[in-house]
Design goal:
Number of strands: 26
Strand content: 35-45%
Shape: globular
CATH topology: Tachylectin-2, Chain A
CATH class: Mainly Beta
Strand order of the largest sheet: 4-5-8-9
Structural class: mainly beta
Number of helices: 2
CATH superfamily: Glycosyl hydrolase domain, family 43
Helix content: under 10%
Amino acid sequence: MDRRTFLGGVGSALGAFAAGCTAISGRSGESNGSSADCGDREDRGTYHNPVFEPVFADPTVTRADDGFFYTYATANDWGDGEGLRVVPICRSSDLVNWEYVGEAFDRVPQWLARTGPADRIWAPDIARYRDRYYLYYSLVDRGPEYALEEQGIGVATADDPAGPFTDHGKVFQGFEVGVLNSIDPQFYLNDGVPHLLWGSLNGLYLTELSADGRRPVGEKTRIGGNRFEAAYVMRREGYYYLFVSSGVCCVPPDVTYQVEVGRATSLSGPYETRYGRDLRDSYGTLVMTESDRFLGPGHNAIATDDCGTDWLLYHAYDRSDPYLANGPGDPRRSLMLDRLVWEDGWPRVENRAPSLAAERPAIDPS
């Protein structure tokens, strides 16, 4: 069973639910908003969605010193006889053509306290920090007594973005920080100080981290309401933009997942919509929703091409083929790519829906 399918069931039972770090040269969640003159976009040719199949859920992305983009995803069995891929890693020179290069872990870590063995890693986040690659991840036990307060966030590090990664274990579990369902981390380095954003359908939160990035420091701050998960912050032209995913993710065709956004002048918020509503108790400004072809776009990260254009990496379902060969327990969330359009200080994708084909990113092949 997929993680958000499971969470949806838990949420219904509780009656509580209504419904990644990007880097350029290792810089987490930032965009310079460049308007460099890079020529006619049509000269670059086109690409088609999805950009990687069969499944690559909850993507996070970084651009490494070797010029390649590396992306990491939730652990999944791809239905190809290879078993569970524990945080699969792909790389690309152009954000369009991705090759599988391995896994971050050879097995699921087992540091959860007060519960049974962990069985899955969800929603990793990659960041370049202190000249190393830090991979934050969600560790969960989906057993019959699944407890929202037990889920937690861990961290691993590597010298090379393709690994091997050394696991450093727990950053925290939900019961230690008072946040149910403590998953979906994003590392963010704000003016040299490391922070972590996290949360899923029980509020979104922010905390400062210790200098080594392994422990929370001080009090947490609530920055988003219970309808959101998959927090992703980027900074642009004086604002912090908080991208969030809302809705039902993983039971196609009954999927309402979409990407929304708010912005603030401080990392700690308050994050507000285009019309001044606070994301702690309101919906966000729409970035993208479903199309005629693709369902449930969400859980995004952002990469920036060599012309300063921002690109949304996310997952979505093809309506005609929403499940893996494993059966209905494994939704087929493929990797998607769309350009962010900025208008009057607010981001969206073209037509606010996934594209079938579009002009390729501007990447210097050298």
